[in-house]
Write a structure and sequence with these properties.
The chain is an all-alpha fold and 256 residues long. The chain has helices spanning 3-13, 17-39, 47-70, 74-77, 81-98, 118-126, 131-158, 168-179, 192-217; strands at 222-223, 233-234.
Length: 256
């Protein structure tokens, strides 16, 4: 194996300080790209924006190629959902540069938002979080990213057509009122695509939102090690270890 490939494998799949710094840099790059996509939703892509699109395409393409080269099973990696979405995003960046009529593909860049769900896992490995706090931290990050992704999707799909959405904050307001079933009704979707998106949020998003919120305030597992077999995770109302049957003592207020 070449030295350069060993370095890339360590950066992507290692566990040292260099790996942590690299992952933090990639998180910053993803956040900057997403911020650019959101900021230019309502802007006509003239020459300067096309140049930025080309630069982002080059960065993403190099990053994807490096990740595949560093992977022990690059062919199998091509079938992963994360790799497929990255390829689709690359296509959405490149094709509008060649054919102006394909500018509508900029909407597909919202798939890049899905990469933000990796932030919670990455930060959990990078930050010194105690085991008992991992579930709450992960749930909090996933909830924040989930709300951000839904809000950004609403903004990207509706910003050009919905007169009620003037800023990303308006989209956030609509998303939160929908997810919490408050529904003030001052911001509504008027076109078929917007209404279908709202139906999707109400059917799937509301349930997921409350599931993530419950995981923050009422974690589904208790991190108490069994004195006999060492099993670390148990149901919060458990009185015996599921692995060895030994009595375990979990401090609880009794309202599970």
């Amino acid at each position: 194996m070449s030295i350069s490939r060993e370095i890339l494998r360590d950066l992507y799949f290692g566990s040292g300080r260099r790996t942590r710094v690299f992952h933090l840099v990639m998180i910053a790059v993803d956040l900057a790209a997403v911020a650019y996509f959101l900021a230019t939703v309502r802007v006509e892509h003239v020459a300067v924006y096309r140049a930025v699109d080309l630069a982002i395409f080059a960065v993403f393409a190099v990053e994807l190629a490096a990740r595949l080269w560093a992977d022990e099973r690059p062919v199998a990696s091509l079938a992963r959902l994360s790799t497929i979405t990255d390829i689709v995003v690359l296509a959405s960046l490149a094709l509008p540069l060649l054919l102006e009529s394909l500018g509508f593909l900029r909407i597909v860049r919202t798939l890049r938002f899905l990469r933000l769900f990796r932030i919670s896992e990455t930060l959990r490995r990078l930050l010194p979080i105690r085991r008992r706090q991992e579930d709450v931290f992960t749930a909090s990050m996933n909830l924040a990213v989930f709300v951000f992704v839904v809000t950004s999707t609403v903004w990207v799909l509706e910003a050009r057509t919905n007169p009620h959405l003037n800023t990303w904050i308006d989209a956030l307001y609509f998303t939160v009122t929908t997810l919490t079933t408050t529904g003030y009704g001052d911001i509504t979707m008027t076109d078929p695509l917007g209404r279908l998106l709202t139906v999707f949020i109400m059917i799937f998003g509301v349930a997921l939102f409350f599931r993530l919120a419950q995981a923050i305030f009422r974690p589904t597992k208790a991190h108490v090690p069994c004195q006999q077999c060492g099993l670390q995770v148990h149901d919060p109302d458990a009185s015996h270890c599921k692995h060895c049957g030994s009595v375990i003592r979990i401090e609880t207020e009794g309202d599970w």
